[in-house]
Amino acid sequence: MGAMQLVQGQREELLQALCCGGSAEGLESVIDLLLAWDLLTWEDYQGLCAPVQTLSSRARGLLDLVCIKGESACALLLAACSRVFPEARKVVLSFGGCKPPQEEQEPHPATATQALRCHRSLLVRRLRGGITAALKALLESGVFTAYDCDEVQLLLYTPSQQARRLLDLVQSKGESAAAILLQHTPTSEENPTTPENEEHPAECLLYQKKLKSSLSAQSHFVSTYGGTGNLSLDDIYTEGLLEVAQGSGEAQQPLGLEDILGHAGTLNEEADTVLVSGEAGSGKSTLLQRLLQLWSRDTALQDYLFLFSFSCRRLSAEEREVSLRDLLFMHCCWPDRGQDLIFQYILDHPHKVLFTFDGVDEFRLGFSDERRHCCPTQCAPVSVLLFNLLQGSLMKGVRKVATSRPVAVTPVLKRYLRKEVSLQGFSTEGIDFFVRKHHSDPAVSNRVLESLQSNMALFGLCHIPVFCWIVSQCSRELLGGGTSPQTITDIYLMVLQHFFQCRSSRRLSPGLGWVQESVGAVIRLGRVALGGLRSSCFMFSEVELQRCGVTEEDICTGFLIHTKDHSSSECKHYEFLHVTMQCFFAALFIVLNNNIGRSTIQDLFYPQYWQDSVLAKVCLGPCLSAGSQKRDPDGGAQEAERPNLEITATFVSGLLSQRHRELLLQACPAPTLDRKCTQVVRALSKGMQKHFKSIPQPIEGEKKSMHAMPEFIWLIKCIYEMQEISVAKDALARLEVEHLKLTYCNIGPVECTALAYVLQHLRTSVGLQLDYNFVGDVGVEQLLPCLEICHSIYLRNNNISDEGIRKLIDKGIQCENLQKIALFNNKLTDACTKHFAELLKRKQHFLSLRLGNNYITAVGAEQLADGLRSNRSLQFLGLWGNKVRDRGAKALAQALQESPSLVWLSLVDNGIGSDGACALAELIRSSKTLEDMWLTKNCITREGVEYLLQALEKNTSVKSIWLRGNELSPEEVEEVTQRESRVVF
Asked: What would the pLDDT profile of 715-743 be if each residue is shown by its tens digit?
């Protein structure tokens, strides 16, 4: 079989190997070799390494490119893979005997720059331990600037990636830089990530084998979906969007699984706990499950000899006091022999051990650091062990990975985090990948995807993996005609119908008959669900289920799945498919139960009254055992349950929508539904008014603004679930602000859909600030319906690409009010600037455009300049942190010379030299409106500064030119400052 056939026939396996464990190292090592062998051109390499691409996209791009290049190229690819892949990966692949070029056939490099390329793979390995020394030599020689050094040493790069970045930069600097680097490259390889070369006791290796076997079995099937068939994790797993959490101070970059334990995003070097945060249904448990699976297969995290995995939901059921040893061996895996030796080895080698804790937010007791416990052999309550493990008092040095919903992470816990990474669900490509994995029939998967793409509200919801799974699971209902789902409630009603009809004792028509037959089971399961939420209980014994009247037939519907409870070997325990499913059944119980008191909905929407409510005392108490109702004396559990109550309230709002009235009338009388609907509308109105009343009066000269809290977003989602325009209008009737600030609110595509539905009914235009969220391209599309009422939109740090911008600008051009756009720190490239140029040409009242910290080059600047020449209104232009360099600066300066409105221009950190400064000086000389120009952190020399000084002599209206961080000596800085006070360093 030829090399090309081998590559095409093993494409899936090669992709998995190149993306092994979510780490880019394998792919980049292969690319290193292909560059050295002249298979890839420098342009090919730059295309494959574009910063906006995901790891899987880069790997696919490499395979496509190699196949285009033909048979010999495929042979070299296989040879490179054979050299790079670990043995465990190579056994499942065929390389057809393909070998690399013979050394004697390789031309001897004639220049230093050629040597960098020919010996790239070797240089990467050698430079990993010598980056600092090499940079020092390059800096001292004058070839590198401090900015170049900082760019190489970004913390988000691994040592190997730093070495590659260094080689790339030196390559672009020319022959002298290459010669200096070769002269200061270590002569031997240093790998800081190589594990210690030590002998492990035989008992430890045997225990590791047993532990891996146990975790492999546990992680093989997707436990969350166990009630609907055995789904293999390999068959269904799809990578989610994983990023350093907002507020870390680092630029957003996609992370792989193994990057969770890497250095990127580290805030506290002394802490051991890494938190993976994400909303309910975003895939946190499945991500941990994938990590366990990869470790058990020897394909990831191999620096750790032992990995112990815990479910906080199950730890909550442990009522005995236990020691750390009991926790490890009884809750995870019991050693067959040498327990004392193994435990002592764990204590002596904490850096060889990894703990994972799934669902810290589901632990019944609130986090507290009041009781210190540091003895590994002394017994204590599980809560004390857990909290001391997370904060490092117990087993300091053991790395821990915990998952939680963001709102459940208290400031007390945050103090002990090494870093926080955020899981944002599926990308657009991830939805496609997941649906195609879920449906083996391409015709069905294509129809599902077509249905999603024709319903953007539903498509936005599918970025949450649990919703995507439901839609894929219920494809028959989705494609069967009728009203297409718009809300989360629609989706869960669809799965309710699907499960009951699939397990019905008789064939039901597609109509409403299933409701009447199933209402008893819904009420019984709902009673259990609501009782569990009241006490932060997510696992239920057979006895507790029987106490609530749940039958074996109810269990067989599939909404409850059997789970192993380590606290009891005699009684089966069950949990809902997902915590959101438990919340949905709790909402059904509240809506359909005629015996629920009038205070129930008020208690649900105002959780501060929950403890003393009639609902808590009368309806829930009989359902659960005394053990399940234990609470933290400090009220910690109340905070832990708050997110679940909000999800339940959202479902209640959706169920009481007029859209579902005909369905619910089959199970509940109309007067009861009317009463509850009125209560929900009143509660939503009261909640919104509470926010509006808190808006402070503006200081004279400032705009009136409201900084919304996360609870505001929840209320907006409830209003959206009701799908009643009158409710949305009434909710915003008294909101009179000029600026609505929604920063750091964990807003994704789902929240954008709800915001757009409600905010489009504002009576006056508003500035909408959504900085530091997770809007993405799909979220941008969801926001378009409310863009008409925005005079400004701020979307800094939102993972938006050129495609999202295209849609935003297409709509923005039509919006009369829109005057300002800010998109600092996204994924924008030169492909977006032509759209902004069109906007500038067509909107002659547009005031401000800020595109800082993106990937715009001179090409993009020239395209933008085309629009600037025609615009007569722009006052503020920000391109901080791009790469427009001299050529781009010249294009912008020339385009702006005739501007009658420009007040402020920022070209900070753009690689601009003295040629660019000369062009900008002409802008200063000619402008009648310019007040401030920012040129900090560029490459301007004393010559370039002289151009600027001469221009300032001609223009006395300019207030400041910022030049800190350019290529001037301290003496030159002093001299310029003395000469011109408007130049700021």
From this structure: 999 999 999 999 999 888 878 788 999 99
**Contacts of 662 by beta carbon, 8 Å cutoff, 6+ apart:** 512
Name residues whose C-beta falls within 8 Å of residue 73's C-beta, 6 or more positions apart in sequence: 39, 66, 67
Please name the residue that has the structure tokens 């499945």: 286
Helix (H) or strand (E) holding 402: strand 399-404
Distance CA 876, CA 904 (A): 5
pLDDT given for residue 274 in this prediction: 93
What gap in Å lies between CA 447 and CA 480, rounded to an integer? Answer: 11
Degrees, nearest 5: CA angle 522-524-526? 65
Give the model's pLDDT for residue 125: 81
Predicted confidence (pLDDT) at residue 847 exceeds the cutoff of 90: yes
Distance between CA atoms of 369 and 386, rounded to whole angstroms? 11
Are the C-beta atoms of residues 418 and 271 closer than 8 Å to each other? yes
Phi, psi of 45 (to 5 degrees): -60, -45
Strand 417-423 with 273-277, pairing:
parallel
Which residues make Cβ contacts (< 8 Å) with residue 371, sequence separation at least 6? 384, 387, 388
Question: In degrees, to the nearest 5, what angle opens at C-alpha 572 toward C-alphas 570 and 574?
Answer: 155
Mean pLDDT along residues 447-475: 87
Q: Is 405 left (phi over 0), alpha (psi -120 to 50) or beta?
A: beta
Ordered DSSP codes for 830-868: GGGHHHHHHHHHH-TT--EEE--SS--BHHHHHHHHHHH
Beta strands, E only, 153-262: 242-244
Q: What is the DSSP string of 522-563?
A: HHHHHHHHHHHHHTT---EEHHHHHHTT--HHHHTTSSEEEE
Q: Is 873 helix (H, G, I), strand (E, B) or coil?
A: coil
pLDDT digits 0-9 by tens, 669-703: 999 999 999 999 999 998 888 877 776 666 666 66
- Interacting residues of 698 by C-beta distance below 8 A, sequence separation 6+: 704, 705
Residue ranges of E strands in 37-103: none
CA-based angle 570:575:576, to the nearest 5? 155
Q: Residue 368's CB: how many other CB atoms inside 10 A?
A: 16
> Is the predicted pLDDT of residue 464 greater than 70, yes or no?
yes
H or E stretch covering 418: strand 417-423
pLDDT for the residue 191? 41
Q: Which candidate, 867, 857, 927, 864, places its Cα nearest to that of 887?
A: 857
Cβ atoms of 851 and 879 closer than 8 Å = yes
Residues 556 and 282: their CA atoms lie apart, in Å, by 26
Q: How many CB atoms lie within 10 A of CB 733?
A: 15
Residue type, position 63, single letter? L
**Please, what is the angle between helix 710-722 and helix 749-759, to 10°?**
70
User: Rg of the chain's alpha carbons, rounded to an integer?
Assistant: 30
**What are the residues facing 307 on neighbouring strands?**
354
* Class of residue 121 by CB neighbours under 10 A (exposed 0-12, middle 13-18, buried 19+): buried
Handedness of CA 125, 127, 128, 130 (dihedral sign): positive
d(CA 7, CA 78): 8
In order, the DSSP letters of 754-782 are: HHHHHHTT-SS-EEEE--SS--HHHHHHH
Phi, psi of 875 (to 5 degrees): -110, -30
C-alpha distance across the termini of the chain, in Å: 66
Tokens of 178: 């290459």
pLDDT of 607 strictly over 70: no
